[in-house]
Amino acid sequence: MIIRVLIAVVLAVPAYFYTMRYNMHMFQQNGYKNKEHLHWLKKKFRLQWILYFGLALGIVTCVFPYLALEIFEYLILLVIIVVYRAMKRMNTKKKLVYTARVKRLLATELILTAAVFALVCGLGGMKRIPGLCLILVSVNLFLDIVANVINHPMEAGINQHYINDAVRKLKSVPGLTVIGVTGSYGKTSVKFYLQTLLQEKYNVLVTPESFNTPMGVVRTIRGSLKPTTEIFVCEMGARHVGDIKEICDMVHPDHGVITSIGPQHLETFFNMENIQKTKFELADALPEGGMLFLNGDNDYIQQQAASPAYDQTPEKIFYYSETEGTGYCAKDVKVSQLGTEFTVVTPDGESERFQMRLIGAHNVINVVGAIAVAHKMGMTLQELRIPVRRIEPVPHRMQMREHGLVTIIDDAYNSNPVGSRAAVETLAMFDGIRILITPGMVELGDKEAEYNHKFGNYAADCCDYILLVGRRHTEPIREGVLEKGFPEEKCLVFDKLEEAVSYAYAIKGQGHKYILLENDLTDNY
């Protein structure tokens, strides 16, 4: 019996740590949110079916500790080791970061596991240890959630300490102006455009990269805010109703920008009404005298802004690029492979011609929004001409990279129904072999297949080759592509991004190749 127990333990230890690491990695990518992780586990059942099977087998082996079942259990543990070891060695897009929170979760999980194991051994259940080992390995599916619940009071206390420190630091900077930026898409771009424009005149701090969660904002304030900072541009992200309000209650924005409202994160918002309400939590937080800059091209924003709740305060300032209205308007837009030109007309009739290196007419709306904010903050249109020329593409957002006879158009950060259409329409204006590589869009709830099908329709009109990554998820795109009469031999499906890129480079033909990388799904997809 002792030998059987030793074999089970020797196999279970590496299996435990490999499965623990993988599931912690996915839990981190799911934002440490229990509901989102449970939804992911349900959605990705087939990915870890062996652990569900192992859990059932372990329970049966505990109840009926027969040698034949234990031998089968050893084989399952060996398979788990091989599979999850291979997962660990894969070149994941976003590595597991051993933050202090992750270390605390891992410590809690180890204590729980050791306690259960010791309890069973103490009760004299030696014959049940082989089955217990497989159970303890398999419950790593859910152990992160259990540990997260146990650690919640401690994590809440730690977070509150950091939040209080950030609030104190904000209050210590005299005359600081806080500008909140939110939207379903475009908020990161507008944030960095604002930095480029405003830093010509002011000392500006922005949240780095895509730091747009409460703790990301706190980290920025505690680590980078200085007594000399004059303007803090704070990006505010949201996946649930109340997320924007949580950040606003901490930073108390003086002004706000809502870049867009659209079908993003529908899996957690459930409907467009919740998205509209959440984005306008920024408007609700603005003080008397605050300015709210709104994308006038967006129907959802126009609809919400027309609500009686926003009749008086804050002051609403619209900006437009495709339509016209009272506000800042872009006119005479000219787009080429080298960049974009447009004229901005202010509400009082002043105008100025601008040039920028960003490609695509869809970028104009975000730059006009940044110009509107900077102009209202005291910069003249003439002063803004040179900084607009200096605006650089935000990494992985229609960022162009030259590689000899190939140009990569990197739009891989995140894809949405509006942005994906704009991206392929921008690709269409290039003179050469136009190649789209995409895994499609995610987090669109029940509408996901519908939006991906429409994306296929748009792409068929704009591309010479369409290379899809992932067979199941891209099927709606492929159907939409072929529905438009696109040649089937030029719409191919690959299992990995690297395979699609290699194929794109190998495509023979005359002319320069333009490869659009539209979206790059994280490892939990």
Automatic annotation (TrEMBL):
Domain Mur ligase C-terminal: start-end pairs: 396-511
Keyword Mitochondrion: no
Pfam families in alphabetical order: Mur_ligase_C, Mur_ligase_M
Mur ligase central domain boundaries: 181-374
GO terms of molecular function: acid-amino acid ligase activity; ATP binding
Keyword Metal-binding tagged: no
Superkingdom assignment: Bacteria
Transmembrane segments: 51-84, 105-123
Keywords, in A-Z order: ATP-binding, Ligase, Membrane, Nucleotide-binding, Transmembrane, Transmembrane helix
Protein name: UDP-N-acetylmuramoyl-tripeptide--D-alanyl-D-alanine ligase
Biological source species: Waltera intestinalis
